[in-house]
Amino acid sequence: MSTISIPMLVALLFAVLINTSATAQQGELNQLQRSTVGDCQCPENIYTSSAPNHTFTFSNDKQIVVCGYGVDEQQPDVLSEFVLAECGVDTVIDFWGAMTICRLGFKQDTLFVQELYELPTGDDFQLREIVWTIEEFSYKGGELMRKKRINRDLKLYDNATIENVLHRYKEADNVLNEDKMLLADQLFTAALSAHAKAKSAFLDFRRRFPELSGAYLQQYRILTKMLSAWEKGR
């Protein structure tokens, strides 16, 4: 198995939470003990090495191989910066970058790729791992089928919690720091509830903190894209 790359340092921030989380989806899909590491390798590509992490065999004898970087040795099904490829095909199916962490599972002749994220949905806004999207790969005859959906079975804020978040945002100073980025996560989570004021406050965050840059700016952009995808799927 490939060793972790330097870009994956950001992914290690998730490791502790991943170790302790036990979501229902994980229990249903954590089937990697059925995968193997065989002779098949990923094609040469610009993203990762060709060395396989896992190979999944479907009922039609087609195989999909995974090559990339494990986030945690305790959970080999959690990867980042990885590719999927069909055995015998000289191009990859797709690439998941270093800012994306996924859990892979195989069930009922289908490969599942769950994109993981952390949202402040725990007690006192503690971060909790959630499954943000679920992508399925299966075969219809010899043709690879692929579909992706947003997981809408998320714990969202009630009105009292949303008002609490909005009040904290209103009373916060204008010094950008880690606490403000946690507040951005809370505003985003509140906006998922279709709360107009929460969405307005989340979008206002960029104006209020124009000095956003680097990892902070990347985090905010990711949340903005996630909110847009969430709203389109309603």
Q: What report would you give on this structure?
A:
This protein has a 7-stranded antiparallel β-sheet. It has 7 helices and 7 strands, in the order H-H-H-E-E-E-E-E-E-E-H-H-H-H. Helix 4 packs antiparallel against helix 5 (178-191). The longest helix is centred in the C-terminal third of the chain and has 19 residues, at 214-232. The protein has helices spanning 9-12, 15-20, 24-29, 159-171, 178-191, 196-208, 214-232; strands at 54-57, 63-70, 78-86, 92-107, 110-119, 128-140, 143-150. The protein is elongated and about 60 Å long. The chain is α+β, with helices and mostly antiparallel strands. Residues 1-34 have low confidence and may be disordered. A hairpin with a 2-residue loop joins strand 6 and strand 7.
Got a strand count? Answer: 7
SSE pattern, N- to C-terminal: HHHEEEEEEEHHHH
Portion of residues within helices = 25-40%
- Radius of gyration, in Å, reads 19 Å
Q: Give the N-to-C terminal Cα separation.
A: 40 Å
The average pLDDT is 86
How many domains? The number is 2
From the spread of the alpha carbons, the general shape counts as: elongated
